[in-house]
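From the pipeline queue, job 12 of 40. The input is one protein chain; the requested action is below.

Action: predict structure.
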Amino acid sequence: MKDKKQIEISVIVTVYNIENYIRECLDSILNQEDVNLECICVDDVSTDRSLEIVKEYAQRDQRITIIQNQKNMGLSSSRNVGFRHASGEYLYNIDGDDYLKPGALKRMYSCAKENNLDLLGFSATAFFDDETMRGFGRVDEYVRKGTYEDIVTGPELFAKLINNNDRASSNMVLYFYRRDYFEKNNLYGIEYLRYADDSMFAMYMAAQRAMCIPDQLYMRRYRKGSVCTSPMKMYYLESLIVLFLQELQIWQNCNLDHELNRTIEKYFITRHRQIKSLSYRLKSDEAGTPLLDQNLMAKYVYKYFIAGESLYQEYPKEEDIIELKNTETIILYGAGYIADEIASILEQNQIHDYMVAVTSKDTKDKKFRGKKIYNICELQDEKEHAYVIVAMSRRHFEEIKSTLKRLGYKKIHWAL
């Protein structure tokens, strides 16, 4: 039976369909010397022999605990399961298809303990299963260029890394952290996040004592079928949006000085670019997971800023579009942003033959989406058969209603 009081390190291993790699990973953990550890393996409903192999190891080594998810939850949720079962003084997470170098955990523990660190970063060596994987990364991909061995706050270390154009936030496997700091600051990952789940931004922002050492303690594998070598999917974009919004809120609550904020803004610019780039690549795909339904702000951003859904979906409906296509004269009443939204919908439905009108008398030489803008009074001869779509703010409602009634327009629809 493990003595929970004396466990120095809880190593969380995430396991999903990695039967060809999990032995090497577990061997690298269990063969670490001079540390008292527990190894918590979280199986995310593997369909190959991964779980069977982990059970085989658990029978031989009592330091291994196996947790089986009841349904596939993804990497972020699986890590959270492991963290909640951990009892060590320090936490460390490893992906089950990678492995540790000899002496890695002793080096992490000694450095973190001696310096009373909340957060310790280090480097890794990348390697490739075969030559076809070399296009996805470099051997020095996870090696930091600078030296960061002074003890500083997490935000200060984060800013130093960014200013040096060095690896800052990504890859949780390259960090070692104190459990009470982790739990006190509620640093668990976002549930059901299936991409961008390695962001360390929250951990940096919460750390009072942090440093990065140059040691390459981890072996990072590039293989077929992993997230970083697989084709991009819509849930990657969804995850990035959810994470982006959460991290903006964390930043808002940090109360940092002007210089730190200026530097950290660079990180969010990079994140924003990732979202824009990925949204362009996945333009024709549809949202693919329940993640957005569980994150209302992210759902809003996706629908209206990424997918470009209309902000005025009450009108026109399908039956309105059918009627409009059979209407001889269509007047779009308004030439602002609401009218632009409605015009966009009309044109998407192949309705291009509409006139644009406003109340203002000064319409000379003005254009709206390439069309001449009329004064509504100029189109009065069309009042008997014209279909008028009012596309203006509700604050003008009474004025517009009175104008149209006075001019004698019969068929009026309000896109408000």
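Job complete. The CA atoms of residues 144 and 166 lie 6 Å apart.
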